[in-house]
Amino acid sequence: MESPPLIADTDNFCSQIFSKYGSSTAEHHQHLIAVTGAMSQTLKDNNQPLSLIAYFGAACSSLDSISSESEPSGHALDSLLTILSLILPGLSGAVVKKKFELVAELVVRVLRGKEVSEAGVAAGLKCVACLVMVRGSVSWNDVSQLYGILLSYATDSRSKVRRQSHVCLRDVLQSFQGTAILAPASEAIANIFERFLLLAGGSNASSSEGPTGAQEVLYILEALKDCLPLLSLKSSTNILKYYKSLLELHQPLVTRRITDSLNVLCRHQKGEVSAEVLLDLLVSLAVLISTNETSADSMTVTARLLDAGMKKVFLINRQICVVKLPVVFSALADVMASEHEEPLYVAIEAFKSLICSCIDDTLIKQGVNQINESAKIGSRKSAPTIIEKVCATIESLLDYRYAAVWDTSLQVVSAMFDKLGDSSSYLLRRTLTNLADMQKLPDEDFPFRKQLHECVGSALVAMGPETFLSLLPLKLEAQDVSQVNAWLFPILKQYTVGSSLNFFTESIFDMISLMKKKSAVLEQEGKIREARTVDGLTYSLWSLLPSFCNYPLDTAESFKDLEKALCGSLRDEPDIRGVICSSLLILIQQNKKILEGNDDISGTETNNPRERALASYTPEVAAKNLNALRLSAREILSVLSGIFLKTSKDDGGLLQATIGEFASISDKVVVSRFYTATMRKLLKVTEEAGKAQNSKSSNSMEVDSSSSEVSLSVARAQLFDLAVSLLPGLDPKETDLLFVALEPALKDSDGMIQKKAYKVLSVILKSSDGFISRKLEELLNMMIEVLPCHFAAKRHRLDCLYYLIEHVSKDNLEDRRHAVIASFLTEIMLALKEANKKTRNRAYDIIVQIGHACGDENRGGKKENLRQYFYLVAGGLASETPHSISAAVKGLARLAYEFTDLVSSAYNVLPSALLLLQRKNREIIKANLGLLKVLVAKSHAEGLHANLKTVVEGLLNWQDSTKNHFKAKVKLLLEMLVKKCGLDAVRAVMPEEHMKLLTNIRKMKERKERKLAANLEETRSQFSKATTSRASKWNHTKIFSDFGDEDDDSDNEYMGADSVSGRQTKNVSVLNSKASTLRSKRKRKAAKLLPEDSYDQIDDEPLDLLDRLKTRSALRSSEQKKAESDDELEMDAEGRLIIHEEGQKPKREMPSEPDLESGSQAGSHVSVNSKKAQKRRKTSESGWANTGSEYASKKAAGDVKRKNKLEPYAYWPLDRKMVSRRPEQRAAARKGMSSVVKLTKKFEGKSVSNALSVKIKRGKKKANKKNR
C-alpha cells in the first residue's frame, strides 16, 4: 500500500479520505472509504464532534472490538490500522503518551494475528514507529518491545512490509539522534546483523537455515543503506568490520549493497564513522577493481564511492588518507582503462575531485623537498613520496594502454598541472616531456591534438613561461628548421598571462637576435626559402609580446629596459609595429581600468594565473605601473609621432590609438609640447597648400603640379590625425585651437581634407560634451555654412550631426530640439540613398539613435516626442523628387522596424504609401514595398486584419502592370499576409480576378509541406538549425531588394529582431533573397574546389581549415569518393568482368546525336570545357538512355517480346530542347519530332535500335559532306 500523506485539516478527516481515494478501484481503498464513512456517520449520530481525537477514539474502540472476535475481518483491521496511522501523526504528544499503552497493546495484538494483509501490516508499522518516536524520550525499556517489532519485520519476505520497516527504522533512529537511547537502538541493529551473518555462515545452524540466513543478510544490508549513517559510532564501526569480510566473498549482490550503503554513509553530512575502518574498506574496494574483472555498473558505483569516501576520510583524518591516495588513484586509472563510457567519466570526475580536495600544499612540499635533497647529494636513497607516486599514476595515463581515452586522460593531467602550480616543474617534468613526444605522432594515430595543446597550455600556466621553456625549449638553434618546436608559439600566445617583462627583454630578445643573424646568413648563402622561414619564426617571437604584456608582474621595474628595445624596433622594423602598439595598448588600458575600478571579471571564467595576477594588481600597483609608463611616454610619443608622419598608412589605427593612450597618461607639459609642434607643422603645410592653389589658379599655363598638391593633402590629413590623437591630454583652450584650424578644412575643395576634418570634428564632439556646450550655436551655424559636403566626408558629417542632435535632445526645450532636428533631417534621410554602403548604414543608425534620444525616458525623452519625430520624417513623402520620397519611405520603414509603438502610426501613412505605388517609379515602388514588408512582419494579426483590404487592393491594383520588376515581391507579401491572417481572411478581400494567384500560393505551400513531411528527419535538423541560428538584425539590402524572396520563412527575419517594446529576442531563420542567391553562386562554385561540400554535411557548418583532423578527414573522404568513382568494376551485358591491360584506359563512347537536323548534332563539335557543350552532352546522355536494343532480335529484322518486359514500342527520345525558352531550340526539337512520322513507313519492320542506327549514319554522312 502506498504511503498516504498526513492529514492537514483535523476537522475534515472524512472528506479528505473521500477526495483522495474516492475514484480508486483498489479493494483496500474501497474498504477504507466504507469504514471511514461508517465511523463518521456513527459520530454524527452520537452528536460527537468530527475531530481527530473523536476519530482516534472510534478507531481504537473498533479495533479492540474487532480484534477480540474469534474470526475478525481482515479488511476491517486493515482499514482501521490505516486510519490510525493517518491520525496518530496529527495528534498532540500528550494525547499519544496518555493512550500509549492502550494503542501499543492493540497494534501489537493485531500485527501478531494472521488476518492482516501486507497493507495492514505496513500501516501497523507506521503506528508503531509513531508511538516509539513519541515515547522514546522517556527510556529504552519503554520502547524496546516496539522497536523489536520494527526490527523483526526488517527481514520479512514481503517486499512492501520490509521496505516500510526500513523506512520506519530510519525515522526512529533519526528521532533518537542526540539521546541516550541511540546506543541500545544501534546495538540492536548490529546484533541482528551479526546473528544473521552467523546463520548464513552455518554457525549454530542446520543445513536448511543456511540459505535463509543468507537472504536475510541481504535484507539487513538493504536496511543499513538507510540506517547506517544514523547509528552510533561503536555500532557503525562493528558493522563496517563485517563489511570487509563480506567483500572478500566477491559476491556481486553483497558487494553492490555494501557499496550503496557506503555511498550513503560517505555523503551524509552528520554521520559518525571510524576513519580507519572506512579507509580500510575503500582500499579493499580499490584493490577489488584492480584485481578482478567487474561490470561497468560496479565500476561506476565504486568510482563514485572512492571519490566521496576519500574526501570524508580526509576531513576526519588527513594523515591516514593521504597514505592511501596512490592506491585509490591506481584503481581509478584501471577504471579508465576499461573504456566503458559511464565508468570512464565518473573516474575522470573522481580524479579531478580528489586532486582538488585531497592534495594539499603540505603534501606537495614534501615531494619537492625530497627531490631537491636528492638533487643536492646526487642520488636517490629514500623511497618515492606520496605525491610522487600519485604523479607517477597521472603520468601513466599517457601510456598507450590509454590511447583510446587520451582525450579524457589529458583532462586529468591538466587538472594535476593546475593543482601543483609551480611545483609541477619538479613533479611532472617527465609528463611534460611525454606530452611533447605525443605532439610528434601523426594525425592518423593521434586525433586529440586540440586536447593535447590545452593540456600543454595548462602546464605553461602552472609553471610560467620561463620554467616552461627551460624544460621544453623552442630549439631555435637547430640547423634544420623542421626541428624547431614551432607548435608551441600558439600555446604561448594563448596561455601566457601574469608573466615577466624582464624575461621577454633578456631571453626572447636574444632569440630574436639569433634568428635575425641566422636569416642573414641563409640569405647570403642563397637559401632564400629557408631565410623566409626563419623570418617567420622571428615574427612569431615578436607576436608573444602582447601575451607577456597581459598583466605582467614587473611592469614598474622592467619597462624601462623594454622601452629601449621597443623604440629601436619601432624605427627599424615596420612589420612588427602593429604587435608593439597592441602590446603597449594592453599595458596602459589594463592598468587604467584597475586604477579606475572598472576591471570587472566577475561572471567570467578566469584561469588561475589571471586570478593570481589580478590579486597582485591593486590600485597602488597600477599607479606605480602607470607612473613607469609615464616616465617613458616622452620618448615613445616622439618615436610614434615621427613614424606616424612618415608612414602613408596606419594599419588598423594602432599607431594613432597608442598615441592617444600615451597622451592620456602623460604629463600635460609633454603633450602640449607635441601638440604645439604639430599645430605649427599643420599651419605651415596649410599655407603651402594655399599658395600652391593660388599659384595654380593665377597661372593656367603652369605645368600641372597635382603630385605636390596630393603630397600636401596627405601631410595635412596626417597632421590632423596626429593632433586629434593627442586630444585626451589637451585642455579646453587647446581643443578650441584645433577647432579653429578645422573650420577652413571643412570648406576645402579637396575631398580627403574635408573627410579628415569631419572625422576629427566628430571625435571632438564625441569625447567632449563640454565643448559642444561652449560652441553649440557656432557649431550649428557652421554645419550649415560649410555645405555642400564632399561625398567622401558624408559619413563623418552624419556623426557630427548626431552628436549635436543628441546634445540638444537632452535639453527640455522642445522647440529648439524640433528646430535642430528639422534643419538636418532632410540631409540625414537623403544619406539613406547614398551609394557608399558605410554612409547608408550610418544614416540608418543615426535615424534610429535620434529616435531613441527622443523616446527613451531614461535619457529625458517621451513617447510623444518619438511620435512627433516619426511624423517629421513622414513629411518627406510630400517631396517633389522620387529620390527624396523614397528616402523618406525608407526612413519610416527603419523606424517602424525598430520601434513597435510606431507601427500603429505607420498605418496612418499607409494610404499615402499605397497611392505612391501608382506613380510607376521603380525607386518609389521599391521603397514602399519594403515599408509594407516591415509593417506586415512587425504587426500583430489584429492590426493587419483592420487594414487587410486596403493593403491587398493596393498591391494588386499595382501588380496588374506587365512590365514591372516586383511581381515576385508582391507575391511574397501576399504569402506573408496568408501566414499572419490566414488564407480565408485574405481570400475574403481578394478580388475575383486574382484568385488564381492565391490558389498558386496555397498549392506551393501545400507542396512544401508535403516535401517536408516526406523528408522529415533531414528537414527537421536543417529547419532547427536555420531557425535557431541567431537573432536577426536590420538588413536594408534584403528589405528593399528588387527581387522576391524565395525563403518560406522570410517574415521571420523581421519578427525575430529586437524592438523597443517587448525586447523579446527570438532565434529565427535568415531571410534569403534571390539577389543574395545570385551573388553567392560564384562563391559556391569556388567552394566546390574544397572537399567541404562532401564533408560533414549534416553539421551545416563550414570546414575549419585550422583543424588538422577535420581537414585530413575531408581530404580522405574526397579521395575515397574519387577512388570509388574511378575504380568501379566494368561488366559486360552478360555479367562478365572486363579487365583492361596496364597503361590502357577504356575509351568512353560519346553518345551520338540522333537528330535528323544538324542543329542537334552541334554538341559533338564543341569544346568539352564550354558550358554549351556540357549542356548538350547532358541532353544527349539523358535523351539516349534507352535505345531499344533489349528488344532487337538476332534472327529477324523486327522487335521481339521479352519475358517480364514491356511490349516493344517505337518512340522518339526526350529532348531537353522541347522545354527550352529559346524559340530556335524549340523549333529544332519540333522539326526533329515531325520527321518521325515521315520516316515511319521507311523504318517499318525494323527494330528500334536498327532504325536509330540508320538515322545516326545518315546524320554523320550529312555532317561529313558539309565539312568538305
From TrEMBL:
One Pfam family linked to the record: HEAT_RRP12_N
Family membership: Belongs to the RRP12 family.
Protein name: Ribosomal RNA-processing protein 12-like conserved domain-containing protein
InterPro entries documented for this protein: ARM-like, ARM-type_fold, HEAT_RRP12, HEAT_RRP12_N
Basic and acidic residues composition bias: residue spans: 1133-1151, 1192-1201
Record-linked SUPFAM superfamilies: ARM repeat
Gene3D superfamilies referenced in this protein's UniProt entry, alphabetically: Leucine-rich Repeat Variant
Region (Disordered): 1050-1088, 1114-1203
Domain (RRP12 N-terminal HEAT) ranges: 5-273
Composition bias type Polar residues, residue spans: 1061-1072, 1158-1171, 1181-1190
Classification via PANTHER family: OS02G0782100 PROTEIN
Ranges where the RRP12 HEAT domain occurs: 338-646
